[in-house]
Amino acid sequence: MRDLRLGRGLTQKGLSERSGVSLSSLRKFEQKGSISLESFLKLALTLGCMDKLIKATEPMESNFSSIDDVLAKDDKKPKRGKHG
User: HTH cro/C1-type domain: which residues (predicted)?
Assistant: First the structure.
């Protein structure tokens, strides 16, 4: 988000004012990565990256139809130290 902010020529104060996220929350987020979901989404909306977030949360296609398929695949992997 910091790179997006800088790429758009925004200061922390400017982004804070546009997004409604407090300046202290924005600073803490950029320094430590900690922020509420609501504030994160406000920043994403303001910086125009909501589409990327939505795409990132779309379910991926799976080769498995059940947990039994996953477990069966694990059973077929060779165990460490066993040959044959």
Answer: 1-53
Q: What is the pTM of this model?
A: 0.69
Token code pair at residue 11? 């200061």
CB 44 within 8 A of CB 1: yes
Instruction: Give CA–CA dist 53/42, Å, rounded.
Output: 12
Query: Helices 23-32 & 12-19, crossing angle to 10 degrees?
Result: 120
Selected residue with higher pLDDT from 68 and 13: 13
Beta-carbon count within 10 A of 25 CB: 19
